[in-house]
Amino acid sequence: MPSARRPSGATRSGAERTDAPRPRALTSRATVLIALVVALALAYTYPLRVYLEQESQIAEMESATAAQRAEIAETAKKLAKWRDDDYLRIQARERYFYVRPGETPLLVVDDKEGAARKAAEQTPAAAPDRWYDTLWSSVEAANAEPQD
Hints:
This protein is mostly helical. It has helices spanning 28-82, 85-96, 112-121, 131-143. The longest helix is centred in the middle third of the chain and has 55 residues, at 28-82. Pfam families: DivIC (PF04977). Keywords: Membrane, Transmembrane, Transmembrane helix. The chain crosses the membrane at residues 26-46. This is Septation ring formation regulator EzrA. Residues 1-23 are annotated as: Disordered.
């Protein structure tokens, strides 16, 4: 049986090896399939975009609804406070300076700007005399002759 292996030193004299022809890269079936996939992808992009926009709008509306419910709950708490008689009395005292019969109202006004303006409008007091001028005027008064 002849050996299937060639010796390493053998030369190629007879038949040379040739490459087989390669098949085409894309067949007509593959081209149609790719075109169909692209057409389907393009056909689904618009509905997908609309779906995602609607999902974001729904999320925004749900958050707005939650904010409105929180505001309604806060307003309900405020309304419950105003139904309490003691709270009404406290608010009348603070906001409208309400006093009960027999009480004396006292209102403290902290108006620093008005006080500064009033101080600027007043004329300054006369400077006090120097001590030696006062002493000398008393000596002159004692030395003066009485006018009778």
